[in-house]
Amino acid sequence: MRIRRVYEELLKQEKRAALRLKCLSGATAFILFALFLMALLGMDVVHKIIKGFDFESRNCVVEESIFTGQNITCACGMHTCFSRYPCLRVLVRISVGTEQSVEKLEPVLVHNTFYDLGSECTYGPPCKSDEKVNFVSVLNFKNTKGQKGTDLKCYFNPNEPHTLSWTTALMK
User: Fold this and answer.
1) Residue 98's pLDDT band (cuts 50, 70, 90)
2) How many CB atoms lie within 10 A of CB 51?
3) Contact of 107 with 94, CB cutoff 8 Å
4) Are 152 and 166 in contact (CB under 8 A)?
5) Can you tell me whether residue 61 is helix, strand or coil?
6) What are the residues facing 102 on neighbouring strands?
7) Which is nearest to 131 in space by CA: 70, 58, 74?
8) 104 Cα distance to chain centroid
9) What is the pTM of this model?
10) Topologically, how does it sit relative to the membrane (predicted)?
11) Per-residue model confidence as pLDDT tens digits over 108-136
12) Are 158 and 147 in contact (CB under 8 A)?
């Protein structure tokens, strides 16, 4: 009888040890995966900031400012609010090169911020639930920065001269 109790006690301890080992290995795997994701996402952010160092300042002249007729969907809340705003494309012309050899580039789509470079539109307003408010915001942007002939400072990447922005990653 006594041997049986000792045997049962050893089995319980073995099961507890196996359960502890499973929990510890699961927690370790979770922590390693989290560290991997943080490193990967951190490299993505650092890559964007490093790309921001490549931009040079130039003067841009607005050639054309048009609404494409396309409405872009935006999220104005966590998961409950979606709205739209009109797509505004502002094309500018810059001069690239030194004062001795100036090359005029074709009009290029400029983006409002460095982080909008992949977008097909120049400006995406802070999204509000009322589409009229979004439209007014885009219209105000067009009237201040999108008037034909307006001379503004912009930033471009000399390695990719068709990549233009009105701000860089280094600006606040």
Assistant:
1) low
2) 17
3) no
4) yes
5) strand
6) 97
7) 74
8) 29
9) 0.62
10) Multi-pass membrane protein
11) 888 887 777 778 888 888 888 888 999 99
12) no
